[in-house]
Amino acid sequence: MSFSIPELLAQHQDEKFELHEKYLNTQMVKVLKTIGYDKVYKKAIGQYLYDQEDNEYLDLLSGFGVFAVGRNHPVVIQALQDTLTLELPNLVQMDVSLMSGLLAKKILQTLPDNLNRMFFCNSGSEAVEAAIKFARYATKRPRILYCEHSFHGLTLGSLSLNGEKIFREGFGALLPDCQAVPFNDLDALENVLRTETVAAFILEPIQGKGVNLPDNDYLPGVERLCRRYGTLFVADEIQTGIGRTGEFWAIDHWHVKPDMVLMAKALSGGFVPVGGVAMSEKIMEAVFNRMDRAVVHGSTFSKNNMAMAAGLATLQVIEDEKLTENSAKKGQAIIDGINELTGEYEFLKEARGKGLMIAVEFHAPKSFSLKAAWSMLEAANKGLFCQMITIPLFKEHHILSQVAGHGMNVVKMLPPLNLTDKDCNKIVEAFRQTIAETHKVPGSIWNLGKTLAGHTLKK
User: Fold this and answer.
1) For 126, phi and psi rounded to 5 degrees?
2) How far apart are CA 232 and CA 144, in angstroms?
3) How many percent of the chain have pLDDT more than 90?
4) Neighbours of 114 (CB within 10 A)
5) Hey, where are the domains in the chain?
6) How far is the C-alpha of 308 from the C-alpha of 80, rounded, in Å?
7) Tens digits of per-residue pLDDT, 335-394?
8) What is the spatial distance between Cα 155 and Cα 81, in angstroms, rounded to a whole number?
9) I need a labelling partner for 423 at 20 to 30 A (CA). Which of 156, 213, 394, 455 fits?
10) CA 314: distance to chain centroid?
11) Measured at the alpha carbon of residue 95, what is the angle toward residues 93 and 98, in degrees to the nearest 5?
12) Residue 133: which of 221, 36, 232 has the closest Cα?
């Protein structure tokens, strides 16, 4: 019997949720069905998803930032097809590959000049794990600092640096000597760094959970303090990097030079997972300091040809299509368009972000009837109001978005970087109509709110 993926998918196309309920994460299926996100998508092109009825959905999640160049980009597909047909030697292990060298060179050309060595791995979490190990070995210090409300991954080491309790609870003892400090607080940071026991301070230039922006003096201050006390400054650009924020790296907004930069997500082109750590030669040579230590840290599938080809093609697309510039322009248009609505709608606090990493935050209104409705939802579950935004955006306007984090009244946008003016106008108008509906109390959208609150209370 011949094996055919198209035939296999056609034979089982209606079994997606059933298979997951039976063999995978049942709770995820329940979530999707509860909020009405249980669609069967059959096709994806660029920034759009298409369901079985050919309805088009604008994707503002992009696989949590993976599809920076859009889904199924033809240039990336061609690069992968070429790589498959060339019959290249792959993962020889007792060898070094040409494509990993080419990708390392291309990445390092985009970074500050103090970063001149690359380490490749398979994911963002692996990049964080590598940074922890490299920092401790290079400095001979034990402690790692991270920020409150940060997100750095879910493997044991990276989980030890997560600032949200829900991800950490119940998994037992995590790595020792890891400590949180407040984001955007240089005094709190210096109070810990002055002990001169900290190997590295690992932070997101813009926090992903909530899209929290730093003050303009924060990252330069972090760099200055880390230099003063001998701590490595590690920028986690896994979500913010590669054009996302309207600069190629988020650190470019503040002109700082970290000792390490972590990357993944968008580098994959959405096809083959790849992560990386850019670092100074000093750090690389401290860890890999003898021939018998040449393999002291690595990963079996890192630097595989398909991942490297995906990375090379993705970077070329971003350059050729000027997606970093497009991200800056389109993101500002969305932020400005939504902020123009703040004087009209009480629930809307602000839109903020850089490039196409955007948060729309809501807060308690002043008028009595709206405040009572808000308080009802908050009593059931903090942050539930935002589900009354994301669900109608999806059902009525075919826009896929998400709440920015647990217990937050923030809707997050992380779309592909190839949005058009038409897409931006659609986003702003959909938010306007949806927010307007929340101000009609009672109303159909508040019936949705009561239903969501009921589900929460049943739990």
Assistant:
1) -65, -35
2) 10
3) 87
4) 13
5) 15-69+322-458, 74-320
6) 9
7) 999 999 999 999 999 999 999 999 999 999 999 889 988 888 888 888 889 999 999 999
8) 32
9) 213
10) 17
11) 110
12) 232
Distances (CA, A) of 149 to 62, 145, 182, 301: 22, 13, 8, 31
Rounded to 5 degrees, what are φ and ψ at 276? -160, 160
50 Rama sector, left if φ>0, alpha if ψ -120 to 50, beta otherwise:
beta
Distance CA 272, CA 201 (A): 29
Omega prior to 6 cis, within 30 of 0: no
What's the CATH fold of domain 74-320? Aspartate Aminotransferase; domain 2 (3.40.640)
Under the banding of pLDDT at 50, 70 and 90, the label for residue 450 is confident
Cα-trace Rg, the chain? 23
Give yes or no for residue 454 having a pLDDT over 70: no
* pLDDT, tens digit, 9 for 90 and up, residues 267-288: 999 999 999 999 999 999 999 9
**Count of CB atoms within 10 A of residue 11's CB?**
10
454 Rama sector, left if φ>0, alpha if ψ -120 to 50, beta otherwise = alpha
CA distance 337 to 346: 16
β-strand partners of 51: 41
Exposed e or buried b per residue across 411-421, where buried means at least 16 C-beta atoms within 10 angstroms of its C-beta? bbbbbbbbbee
CB 308 within 8 A of CB 101: no
DSSP symbol at 49: E
Written as one letter, the residue type at 324 is T
pLDDT of residue 452: 72
Note the pLDDT of residue 247. 98
Residues in the chain: 459
Q: Is the pLDDT of residue 291 over 90?
A: yes
- Cα separation, 330 vs 353, in Å, equals 12
Neighbour tally for 325: CB within 10 Å: 15
Which residue type does 441 have?
Answer: V
The tens digit of pLDDT for each residue in 112-141 reads: 999 999 999 999 999 999 999 999 999 999
Question: What span, in angstroms and rounded, lies between the C-alpha atoms of 382 and 19?
Answer: 32
Sign of CA dihedral 251, 46, 105, 285: positive
